[in-house]
Amino acid sequence: MTKPGFSIVFFKDSGYRIILNIMGLMSKDIITTVDLPKEDVEEIMKQSEAMLLFLRDGRVPRLLKGKILATMFFEPSTRTRLSFTSAMLRLGGSVLGFSGTEGTSIKKGESLEDTVRMVDSYSDIIVMRHPDMGSSALAARIAKNPVISGGDGHNHHPTQGLMDLFTIMKEKGLRGVNVALCGDLKYGRTTHSLIYLLAMYGLGINLVSPASLRMPAEIVKEIKRSNGCEIREFRSMSEVVSDVDVLYVTRIQKERFLNISEYGKLEGSYRVDRKLLGKAKKGLIVMHPLPRVSEISTEVDGTPFAKYFDHAAYGVPVRMALLSLLLGKV
Protein backbone atom coordinates (compact mmCIF):
# COMPACT_ATOMS: atom_id res chain seq x y z
CA MET A 1 0.00 0.00 0.00
CA THR A 2 1.25 3.48 -0.90
CA LYS A 3 0.41 6.47 1.27
CA PRO A 4 -0.96 9.60 -0.39
CA GLY A 5 1.58 12.33 -1.09
CA PHE A 6 4.04 13.58 -3.68
CA SER A 7 7.39 12.13 -4.78
CA ILE A 8 10.65 14.04 -5.02
CA VAL A 9 13.94 12.43 -5.97
CA PHE A 10 16.91 13.86 -4.08
CA PHE A 11 20.20 13.18 -5.88
CA LYS A 12 23.33 13.31 -3.75
CA ASP A 13 26.77 13.63 -5.39
CA SER A 14 28.34 10.85 -3.38
CA GLY A 15 31.06 9.66 -5.68
CA TYR A 16 28.83 6.74 -6.67
CA ARG A 17 26.36 7.18 -9.51
CA ILE A 18 23.08 6.10 -7.93
CA ILE A 19 20.06 6.91 -10.05
CA LEU A 20 17.00 5.07 -8.83
CA ASN A 21 13.35 5.34 -9.73
CA ILE A 22 11.84 5.71 -6.27
CA MET A 23 8.34 6.59 -7.44
CA GLY A 24 7.22 3.02 -6.82
CA LEU A 25 8.61 2.82 -3.28
CA MET A 26 8.22 6.24 -1.73
CA SER A 27 5.62 6.20 1.07
CA LYS A 28 4.90 2.49 0.63
CA ASP A 29 4.15 0.16 3.50
CA ILE A 30 6.30 -2.98 3.64
CA ILE A 31 4.08 -5.65 5.20
CA THR A 32 4.88 -8.85 3.25
CA THR A 33 7.04 -9.86 0.30
CA VAL A 34 4.00 -11.32 -1.45
CA ASP A 35 2.88 -8.02 -2.96
CA LEU A 36 6.33 -6.54 -3.65
CA PRO A 37 6.83 -6.28 -7.42
CA LYS A 38 10.20 -7.37 -8.75
CA GLU A 39 11.09 -3.84 -9.84
CA ASP A 40 10.76 -2.68 -6.22
CA VAL A 41 12.92 -5.55 -5.00
CA GLU A 42 15.52 -4.66 -7.62
CA GLU A 43 15.55 -1.05 -6.42
CA ILE A 44 16.04 -2.20 -2.83
CA MET A 45 18.93 -4.49 -3.84
CA LYS A 46 20.63 -1.67 -5.79
CA GLN A 47 20.24 0.82 -2.97
CA SER A 48 21.43 -1.78 -0.43
CA GLU A 49 24.59 -2.25 -2.48
CA ALA A 50 25.12 1.50 -2.53
CA MET A 51 24.63 1.74 1.24
CA LEU A 52 27.10 -1.10 1.78
CA LEU A 53 29.70 0.83 -0.23
CA PHE A 54 29.03 3.95 1.83
CA LEU A 55 29.50 2.00 5.06
CA ARG A 56 32.74 0.41 3.89
CA ASP A 57 34.13 3.79 2.79
CA GLY A 58 32.96 5.53 5.98
CA ARG A 59 31.15 8.20 3.94
CA VAL A 60 27.48 7.63 4.70
CA PRO A 61 25.36 10.58 3.49
CA ARG A 62 23.06 12.07 6.14
CA LEU A 63 20.03 11.66 3.92
CA LEU A 64 17.50 11.40 6.76
CA LYS A 65 18.55 14.34 8.89
CA GLY A 66 15.44 15.72 10.58
CA LYS A 67 13.46 12.49 10.09
CA ILE A 68 12.24 10.31 12.98
CA LEU A 69 11.86 6.53 13.02
CA ALA A 70 9.48 5.02 15.57
CA THR A 71 10.17 1.46 16.69
CA MET A 72 7.13 -0.30 18.18
CA PHE A 73 8.29 -3.69 19.42
CA PHE A 74 5.69 -5.70 21.31
CA GLU A 75 7.90 -8.82 21.07
CA PRO A 76 11.60 -9.31 21.90
CA SER A 77 14.12 -8.36 19.23
CA THR A 78 17.86 -7.86 19.03
CA ARG A 79 18.87 -7.71 15.37
CA THR A 80 15.74 -6.19 13.79
CA ARG A 81 15.30 -3.40 16.32
CA LEU A 82 18.99 -2.54 16.67
CA SER A 83 19.79 -2.74 12.95
CA PHE A 84 16.89 -0.41 12.14
CA THR A 85 18.12 1.94 14.86
CA SER A 86 21.67 1.77 13.52
CA ALA A 87 20.43 2.33 9.97
CA MET A 88 18.43 5.44 10.91
CA LEU A 89 21.22 6.94 13.02
CA ARG A 90 23.84 6.33 10.33
CA LEU A 91 21.65 8.21 7.86
CA GLY A 92 21.42 11.18 10.23
CA GLY A 93 17.91 10.57 11.52
CA SER A 94 16.56 10.07 15.03
CA VAL A 95 14.81 7.16 16.74
CA LEU A 96 12.12 6.88 19.38
CA GLY A 97 10.07 3.93 20.50
CA PHE A 98 9.66 1.07 22.93
CA SER A 99 10.60 -2.58 23.38
CA GLY A 100 7.97 -4.39 25.39
CA THR A 101 4.86 -2.76 26.80
CA GLU A 102 6.13 -1.82 30.26
CA GLY A 103 6.00 1.93 30.70
CA THR A 104 3.45 2.41 27.91
CA SER A 105 -0.29 3.10 27.98
CA ILE A 106 -0.87 -0.35 26.50
CA LYS A 107 -0.56 -1.57 30.10
CA LYS A 108 -3.51 0.68 30.89
CA GLY A 109 -5.63 -0.95 28.20
CA GLU A 110 -4.99 1.37 25.26
CA SER A 111 -5.85 -0.30 21.94
CA LEU A 112 -3.28 -1.05 19.24
CA GLU A 113 -5.16 1.29 16.92
CA ASP A 114 -4.86 4.25 19.30
CA THR A 115 -1.21 3.52 20.04
CA VAL A 116 -0.43 3.48 16.31
CA ARG A 117 -2.28 6.78 15.79
CA MET A 118 -0.25 8.48 18.51
CA VAL A 119 3.13 7.08 17.43
CA ASP A 120 2.35 7.99 13.81
CA SER A 121 1.84 11.62 14.83
CA TYR A 122 5.26 11.71 16.52
CA SER A 123 7.33 10.21 13.68
CA ASP A 124 7.90 9.96 9.93
CA ILE A 125 8.05 6.17 9.58
CA ILE A 126 7.19 3.20 11.82
CA VAL A 127 8.72 -0.25 12.28
CA MET A 128 6.47 -2.56 14.29
CA ARG A 129 6.75 -6.11 15.63
CA HIS A 130 3.68 -7.67 17.19
CA PRO A 131 2.65 -11.22 18.20
CA ASP A 132 -0.68 -11.13 16.34
CA MET A 133 -0.97 -12.06 12.68
CA GLY A 134 -2.43 -9.18 10.67
CA SER A 135 -1.35 -6.51 13.16
CA SER A 136 1.11 -4.91 10.72
CA ALA A 137 -1.56 -4.61 8.03
CA LEU A 138 -3.89 -3.06 10.61
CA ALA A 139 -1.23 -0.51 11.58
CA ALA A 140 -0.64 0.33 7.92
CA ARG A 141 -4.33 1.06 7.39
CA ILE A 142 -4.35 3.45 10.34
CA ALA A 143 -1.03 5.27 9.96
CA LYS A 144 -0.55 8.14 7.52
CA ASN A 145 3.20 7.51 7.37
CA PRO A 146 4.88 4.35 6.02
CA VAL A 147 4.75 1.23 8.19
CA ILE A 148 7.34 -1.54 7.97
CA SER A 149 6.54 -4.90 9.51
CA GLY A 150 9.25 -6.23 11.80
CA GLY A 151 7.26 -9.47 12.06
CA ASP A 152 3.65 -10.19 12.98
CA GLY A 153 3.15 -13.51 14.70
CA HIS A 154 4.14 -16.37 12.41
CA ASN A 155 2.92 -14.48 9.36
CA HIS A 156 5.73 -12.56 7.60
CA HIS A 157 9.03 -10.75 8.24
CA PRO A 158 9.62 -8.92 4.95
CA THR A 159 12.80 -7.01 5.77
CA GLN A 160 14.45 -10.24 6.95
CA GLY A 161 13.48 -11.80 3.62
CA LEU A 162 15.06 -8.88 1.75
CA MET A 163 18.32 -9.11 3.70
CA ASP A 164 18.28 -12.89 3.15
CA LEU A 165 18.03 -12.28 -0.59
CA PHE A 166 20.78 -9.63 -0.43
CA THR A 167 23.05 -12.06 1.42
CA ILE A 168 22.49 -14.76 -1.21
CA MET A 169 23.14 -12.19 -3.94
CA LYS A 170 26.42 -11.08 -2.35
CA GLU A 171 27.68 -14.57 -1.49
CA LYS A 172 26.37 -16.72 -4.36
CA GLY A 173 24.66 -14.52 -6.95
CA LEU A 174 21.04 -14.89 -8.05
CA ARG A 175 21.36 -17.28 -10.98
CA GLY A 176 21.17 -21.04 -10.77
CA VAL A 177 21.36 -21.09 -6.97
CA ASN A 178 19.77 -24.01 -5.14
CA VAL A 179 18.45 -23.16 -1.65
CA ALA A 180 17.25 -25.38 1.19
CA LEU A 181 14.99 -23.86 3.85
CA CYS A 182 15.35 -26.01 6.97
CA GLY A 183 13.71 -26.40 10.36
CA ASP A 184 10.51 -24.73 11.51
CA LEU A 185 8.78 -23.80 8.26
CA LYS A 186 5.29 -23.71 9.77
CA TYR A 187 5.87 -20.91 12.28
CA GLY A 188 9.05 -19.44 10.80
CA ARG A 189 7.92 -16.07 9.45
CA THR A 190 11.37 -15.45 7.95
CA THR A 191 10.95 -18.43 5.62
CA HIS A 192 7.41 -17.32 4.73
CA SER A 193 8.86 -14.06 3.40
CA LEU A 194 11.99 -15.51 1.80
CA ILE A 195 10.30 -18.26 -0.21
CA TYR A 196 8.39 -15.71 -2.32
CA LEU A 197 11.64 -13.91 -3.17
CA LEU A 198 13.37 -17.17 -4.08
CA ALA A 199 10.50 -17.97 -6.44
CA MET A 200 10.63 -14.45 -7.90
CA TYR A 201 14.24 -15.02 -8.98
CA GLY A 202 13.70 -18.61 -10.09
CA LEU A 203 16.04 -20.08 -7.49
CA GLY A 204 15.82 -23.75 -6.54
CA ILE A 205 13.56 -24.28 -3.53
CA ASN A 206 13.97 -27.26 -1.20
CA LEU A 207 11.99 -27.51 2.04
CA VAL A 208 13.38 -29.58 4.91
CA SER A 209 11.28 -29.97 8.06
CA PRO A 210 9.53 -32.40 10.39
CA ALA A 211 6.10 -33.41 9.07
CA SER A 212 4.40 -31.32 11.77
CA LEU A 213 6.36 -28.17 10.84
CA ARG A 214 5.99 -28.19 7.06
CA MET A 215 5.66 -24.97 5.10
CA PRO A 216 1.94 -24.02 5.08
CA ALA A 217 0.23 -25.72 2.15
CA GLU A 218 -1.39 -22.49 1.00
CA ILE A 219 2.03 -20.84 0.54
CA VAL A 220 3.38 -23.77 -1.47
CA LYS A 221 0.22 -23.88 -3.58
CA GLU A 222 0.28 -20.13 -4.27
CA ILE A 223 3.93 -20.13 -5.33
CA LYS A 224 3.44 -23.10 -7.64
CA ARG A 225 0.38 -21.40 -9.15
CA SER A 226 1.92 -17.96 -9.63
CA ASN A 227 5.51 -18.90 -10.50
CA GLY A 228 5.21 -22.43 -11.82
CA CYS A 229 8.40 -23.41 -10.00
CA GLU A 230 9.23 -26.81 -8.59
CA ILE A 231 9.31 -27.13 -4.80
CA ARG A 232 10.84 -30.28 -3.33
CA GLU A 233 10.20 -31.39 0.25
CA PHE A 234 12.45 -33.50 2.49
CA ARG A 235 12.63 -34.64 6.11
CA SER A 236 16.41 -34.61 6.64
CA MET A 237 19.18 -32.12 5.85
CA SER A 238 21.45 -35.03 4.95
CA GLU A 239 19.19 -35.61 1.92
CA VAL A 240 19.98 -32.19 0.41
CA VAL A 241 23.32 -31.00 1.79
CA SER A 242 25.32 -32.42 -1.13
CA ASP A 243 23.06 -30.76 -3.73
CA VAL A 244 22.33 -27.24 -2.47
CA ASP A 245 24.33 -24.01 -2.52
CA VAL A 246 22.61 -22.40 0.47
CA LEU A 247 21.50 -24.11 3.68
CA TYR A 248 19.11 -21.68 5.41
CA VAL A 249 18.58 -23.00 8.94
CA THR A 250 15.89 -21.85 11.38
CA ARG A 251 15.28 -22.66 15.03
CA ILE A 252 12.27 -24.57 16.30
CA GLN A 253 10.19 -21.70 17.70
CA LYS A 254 9.26 -22.65 21.23
CA GLU A 255 7.16 -19.50 21.76
CA ARG A 256 4.74 -20.47 18.94
CA PHE A 257 3.79 -23.87 20.40
CA LEU A 258 0.54 -24.14 22.33
CA ASN A 259 1.61 -27.55 23.68
CA ILE A 260 5.13 -27.43 25.13
CA SER A 261 5.43 -31.21 25.04
CA GLU A 262 5.15 -31.06 21.25
CA TYR A 263 8.08 -28.65 21.20
CA GLY A 264 10.07 -31.03 23.38
CA LYS A 265 9.63 -33.83 20.84
CA LEU A 266 11.15 -31.69 18.08
CA GLU A 267 13.81 -29.76 19.98
CA GLY A 268 17.26 -30.61 18.68
CA SER A 269 15.94 -32.73 15.80
CA TYR A 270 17.77 -30.61 13.21
CA ARG A 271 21.44 -29.80 13.71
CA VAL A 272 24.24 -28.59 11.48
CA ASP A 273 27.69 -29.77 12.54
CA ARG A 274 31.00 -30.69 10.94
CA LYS A 275 29.83 -34.25 10.34
CA LEU A 276 26.87 -33.09 8.27
CA LEU A 277 28.99 -30.55 6.40
CA GLY A 278 31.47 -33.25 5.50
CA LYS A 279 28.91 -34.22 2.84
CA ALA A 280 28.34 -30.65 1.66
CA LYS A 281 28.51 -29.42 -1.90
CA LYS A 282 31.63 -27.36 -2.61
CA GLY A 283 31.00 -23.69 -1.85
CA LEU A 284 27.95 -24.32 0.33
CA ILE A 285 27.06 -21.48 2.69
CA VAL A 286 25.07 -21.79 5.91
CA MET A 287 22.67 -18.96 6.77
CA HIS A 288 20.47 -18.41 9.81
CA PRO A 289 18.15 -15.47 10.68
CA LEU A 290 19.25 -15.83 14.33
CA PRO A 291 18.99 -16.28 17.21
CA ARG A 292 20.24 -19.84 17.08
CA VAL A 293 19.70 -22.26 19.93
CA SER A 294 21.21 -25.67 19.22
CA GLU A 295 20.54 -26.10 15.51
CA ILE A 296 24.02 -24.96 14.42
CA SER A 297 27.00 -26.23 16.39
CA THR A 298 29.51 -23.56 17.41
CA GLU A 299 32.17 -25.73 15.77
CA VAL A 300 30.82 -24.49 12.43
CA ASP A 301 31.48 -20.83 13.30
CA GLY A 302 35.10 -20.76 12.19
CA THR A 303 34.54 -22.61 8.92
CA PRO A 304 34.09 -21.13 5.42
CA PHE A 305 30.50 -22.45 5.51
CA ALA A 306 29.41 -20.02 8.22
CA LYS A 307 27.79 -16.87 6.85
CA TYR A 308 25.16 -16.23 9.52
CA PHE A 309 27.00 -13.39 11.24
CA ASP A 310 27.81 -11.71 7.89
CA HIS A 311 24.16 -12.31 7.08
CA ALA A 312 23.08 -10.40 10.21
CA ALA A 313 25.48 -7.54 9.44
CA TYR A 314 23.90 -7.06 6.01
CA GLY A 315 20.74 -6.02 7.85
CA VAL A 316 22.10 -2.49 8.33
CA PRO A 317 22.67 -1.54 4.66
CA VAL A 318 19.42 -3.22 3.60
CA ARG A 319 17.42 -1.32 6.21
CA MET A 320 19.26 1.90 5.37
CA ALA A 321 18.14 1.33 1.79
CA LEU A 322 14.53 0.76 2.80
CA LEU A 323 14.34 3.83 5.05
CA SER A 324 15.87 6.11 2.42
CA LEU A 325 13.66 4.79 -0.38
CA LEU A 326 10.40 4.89 1.58
CA LEU A 327 11.13 8.42 2.73
CA GLY A 328 12.12 9.54 -0.78
CA LYS A 329 15.68 10.49 0.15
CA VAL A 330 18.18 9.01 -2.31
Summarize the structure.
The chain is an alpha/beta fold and 330 residues long. The protein contains 11 helices and 9 strands.
Topology (SSEs and partners):
Elements: H1 38-57, E1 68-73, H2 79-90, E2 94-99, H3 112-122, E3 125-130, H4 135-142, E4 147-152, H5 158-172, E5 178-182, H6 189-200, E6 204-208, H7 217-227, E7 231-234, E8 246-249, H8 260-266, H9 274-277, E9 285-287, H10 308-313, H11 315-326
Parallel strand pairs: 1-2, 1-3, 3-4, 5-6, 5-8, 6-7, 8-9
Helix pairs in contact: 1-11, 2-11, 3-4, 5-6
Describe, in plain words, how this protein is organized in 3D:
By secondary structure, the protein is of the alpha/beta class. The protein has a domain at 158-313: Aspartate/ornithine carbamoyltransferase (Rossmann fold, 3-Layer(aba) Sandwich), CATH 3.40.50.1370. It has helices spanning 38-57, 79-90, 112-122, 135-142, 158-172, 189-200, 217-227, 260-266, 274-277, 308-313, 315-326; strands at 68-73, 94-99, 125-130, 147-152, 178-182, 204-208, 231-234, 246-249, 285-287. The strands form two sheets. It has a five-stranded parallel beta sheet. It has a four-stranded parallel beta sheet with strand order 2-1-3-4, sandwiched between helices. α2 links the parallel β1 (68-73) and β2. α1 crosses α11 (315-326) and α2 packs across α11 (315-326).
List keywords for this structure.
330 residues, alpha/beta, Rossmann fold, five-stranded parallel sheet, four-stranded parallel sheet, 11 helices
